[in-house]
Amino acid sequence: MASTLSTAQPAGWRELFGKEDWWAIWIGLGLLAASVLLFDNGGSMKWLAVTPAKWHTLQDLGAQLAANGPRYAALFLLWAVILGVSVSALGISLRQFLPSFGFIFAVSVVIFFLGEWDEAHHYNLEPPLVALALGIIIANTFRLPAWLESGFRVEFYIKTGIVLLGATLPFTLILWAGPVAIAQATIVSLVTFGTIFLVGKRLGLDRRLAAVLGVGGAVCGVSASIAIAGAVGARKEDAPVSISLVVLWAIIMIFALPIVARALALPTGVAGAWIGTSEFADAAGLAAAQAYGGYAGNVPGITGTPDAAVNAFTLMKVIGRDVWIGIWALVLSIVATTRWETTGINGRAGVGEIWRRFPKFVIGFLVASLVVTAISHGYSFADYKKLVEPGLVAPIKNLRTWAFIFCFFSIGLTTRLSDFTRGGAKPFYAFTAGVAVNVVLGYVLSTQVFVGFWTALGQ
Fold first, then answer.
1. How many CB atoms lie within 10 A of CB 257?
2. What is the pLDDT of residue 4?
3. d(C-alpha 153, C-alpha 199), whole Å
4. Where is average pLDDT lowest: 171-185, 277-291, 333-347, 390-404?
5. How far apart are CA 394 and CA 385, in angstroms?
6. Global pTM?
7. Which end of the chain is less crowded, N or C, counting CB atoms within 10 A of the terminal residue's CB?
8. Is residue 184 packed enough to be buried (19+ CB in 10 Å), middle (13-18) or exposed (0-12)?
9. Beta partners for 117?
10. Measuring CA to CA, which residue among 309, 307, 301, 299 is closest to residue 269?
11. Secondary structure of 71-84 in HEC code, one letter for each residue
12. Where are the domains of the chain?
């Protein structure tokens, strides 16, 4: 008995440094801790968390690179060190990972700069979408060497990004968003999930796939699909199926929502809320909201301010819906292990299995949110935007954006065109049913039920 206990306990401790989820937490919270320390002492991580600025000509681009070259080199060194230490602990060869990550980082820099071209929004060249598309083109055109795949750590990048996302979503923001935004986001999240899950079940889909599809449509597509796949113990191919459908409909909605909203001459705040309710990816939705905001003052009949569209979208999607990632992950991990499985005492999984299945990086998301909540407590919304966001949150948001670009590019590099048809037509039908309900419900809530709130937001 003593021998058994002596080996079991260290194994539990070793998990803290032997699992991807925990390393995502250590990286995310470590970066947050460094940012908090600098912020408390009057500094900031802004120099290190560099991102491209808007540019128009190649001369502008060259000037940026010349001025910020050392900053990009330092940023690469930061990511290479923290990711290198992590993957080494996970048993991945550094000799293979570092050159592969160097390739991913270099291409990500190019993608990010392309996204900051001042004409990029006309062509929907948002960095995450460009990263995904470029990755798919490369993967389906060239035969990449096997060693290069060691850097395509899709789940690791997205888990790290989700932990950092928590730091940009303090609970005080949820309170500032007000009951209208929270109520609308809650209604949409519950109804969309229920629609996709029930239709999927009716079509004969496995409950785990139906759950992944449901949360992918109800919350933040790619991040949620990966998180829930782990929470419910889904099959390896389930997350790519959901991600493919999320990306497909996100791209369609980038074009469709602004066009329809413009035809209906919706105020910018109302349109932003509808986009936030009906889009399936943050980057795609932000692109659509920014495009519609540009119509204010330029298209006859469209009232409101350009910022109103982006602000309404942020309240609905980035704050209202994205916070549901942690809630759905917790609830569905419990449901899957206690109701859907027959492994454990009396045919049910026990508490230990629930903990094993629960996506640990969600803990990092919640802790990061609580840390920034504690720091921003006592600030007004105006002071938060003026002081806390630029000094503390913005650098973390920049690092989160880099992690998401690494992830999207890696998704593309590991995706074959056959992935879009994997699983047959039934997942498509189930997800599309959710899309239809989501768009109609979002329109009614934004233009009828809560129209006064969203219209006033644009004044």
1. 27
2. 33
3. 32
4. 333-347
5. 10
6. 0.71
7. N
8. buried
9. 55
10. 309
11. HHHHHHHHHHHHHH
12. 15-457
Among 288, 295, 296, residue whose Cα is nearest residue 272 = 288
* Contact by Cβ (8 Å): 79, 405: no
**Percent helix / strand / coil, the chain, rounded to 5:** 80, 0, 20
Phi, psi values for residue 353, rounded to 5° = -70, -35
Chain-centroid distance, C-alpha 17? 24
Asked which of 59-73, 89-103, 162-176 is least confident by mean pLDDT, the reply is 162-176
Cα distance between the two ends of the chain: 71
Length of the chain: 459
The confidence band for 106, taking pLDDT boundaries of 50, 70 and 90, is very high
Concatenating the DSSP letter of every residue in 382-397 gives: HHIIIIIIIIIIHHHH
CA distance 234 to 241: 11
Longest dimension (CA), the chain: 79
SS3 401: helix
* The token pair that represents 443 in the structure block: 């329109």
321 or 1, higher pLDDT? 321
Question: Counting Cβ atoms within 10 Å, is residue 459 exposed (0-12), middle (13-18) or buried (19+)?
Answer: exposed
CA 193/CA 25 separation, integer angstroms = 27
Q: Which residue has the tokens 């912020």?
A: 39
